[in-house]
Design brief:
The chain has helices spanning 18-26, 46-53, 68-78, 97-106, 171-176, 189-199, 226-241, 247-263, 267-276, 281-294, 299-302, and strands spanning 5-11, 34-40, 58-62, 83-87, 91-93, 111-120, 127-129, 132-134, 140-142, 157-159, 166-170, 203-213. With 321 residues, the chain is of the alpha/beta class. It folds into 2 domains: 5-220, Spore Coat Polysaccharide Biosynthesis Protein SpsA, Chain A, CATH 3.90.550; 222-295 and 308-313, no CATH class. It is globular.
Length: 321
């Protein structure tokens, strides 16, 4: 395989996770050309650890937490490889992960990314994500989430998109699409990128190489929390790309989310998240024309019709309401 591979790790106070991650990278059957850690102003000793224990790792130190999307973009720009593996700090790779994903991407010139079989780090028999699915109600589901790893996710194929917690990207394709949208800060920036890549005619492969993932290890320390960012960023995604005729589907999902937020006594946070998208709307709406003009695939083809409830919705029982 002629394509060189860079590994990029956005890090924000991930010192506790770095040893296992870097050990698993060092044990890869296919050695990467370089490992880059983009540090988002960590205050937990991450930089001292990397300098003392892993001098061969290239560190790009940022002064503050600029968000996952910005750190990922910075790593992509700094990388020398034509293929870039983007990894969260709370990931442990199987030894063949890089070889399998890189081989799949190098063999398919029409693919821009490879999603993998992410399993729970605390319970490796349970699936975390086997490729993403985007629905017309604005929800992105993760195939197999919370299900047992019973063989259903062991076949290579094609999916809508890849979770950027452990994914391989064709660097040129991502950069030509404009990289990750940094307005998201964290969460759903990978879904947004997957949609833009699909609209531009690229595909995403699924290769069942295993990456163990702790999941949401830093979510509790993010501004306003995970659910705030998911709500705000879902609406941003819809404003950027969804046709008006899908708005009833989005309204249905938003009403369902608001109802559950009310039951869980977090409705104020939900409404605050929805309000937080308002300043972002003018720029998002202005960008719609550019996105449509550059698209070679229709939005209907990029986001196929699927049910919003039940097993065929693509999600798991706790999210299908």
């Amino acid at each position: 395989m002629k394509d060189s591979v860079s590994v990029v790790v956005p890090n924000w106070n991930g010192r506790a996770w770095l040893p296992a991650l870097l050990e698993s990278i060092a044990a890869q059957q296919l050695a990467p050309a370089e490992v880059i850690v983009v540090d988002n102003g960590s205050e937990d000793g991450s930089l001292a650890y990397l300098q003392g224990e892993h001098p061969g790792v290239r560190v790009v130190a940022l002064a503050r937490n600029t968000g996952f999307a910005h750190a990922a973009n910075r790593g992509l720009r700094e990388a020398c490889g034509s293929l870039v593996a983007l990894l969260n700090t709370d990931i442990v790779l199987a030894p063949d992960w890089l070889a399998r994903t890189a081989s799949a991407l190098a063999a398919d010139a029409g693919a821009a990314a490879v999603a993998c079989k992410m399993l729970s780090l605390s319970d490796p028999g349970r699936v975390y994500d086997a490729g993403d699915v985007l629905r017309r109600d604005g929800v992105c589901e993760q195939r197999g989430r919370f299900m047992r790893d019973d063989g259903r996710w062991d076949t290579s194929g094609e999916v809508f998109g890849a979770c950027a917690g452990a994914a391989l990207y064709r660097r040129s394709a991502v950069l030509s699409a404009g990289g990750f949208d940094e307005r998201y800060f964290a969460y759903l920036e990978d879904v947004d990128l997957s949609l833009r890549l699909r609209l531009a005619g690229w595909r995403c492969l699924y290769e069942p190489a295993v990456a163990l993932h702790a999941g949401e290890s830093s979510a509790g320390r993010l501004p306003n929390g995970l659910l705030f960012l998911v709500e705000r960023n879902t609406l941003l995604l819809v404003a950027k790309a969804f046709p008006p005729r899908w708005l009833p589907f989005v309204a249905y999902r938003q009403a369902a989310w608001a109802y559950h937020a009310l039951l869980e006594r977090r409705l104020r946070n939900q409404l605050s998240a929805a309000a937080a998208v308002l300043p972002m709307l003018p720029a998002a709406l202005r960008g719609r024309r550019t996105l449509r003009a550059a698209a070679t695939v229709s939005i209907e083809e990029a986001v196929p019709r699927r049910p919003f409830r039940g097993p065929r919705a693509g999600g798991h029982r706790s999210q299908i309401v």
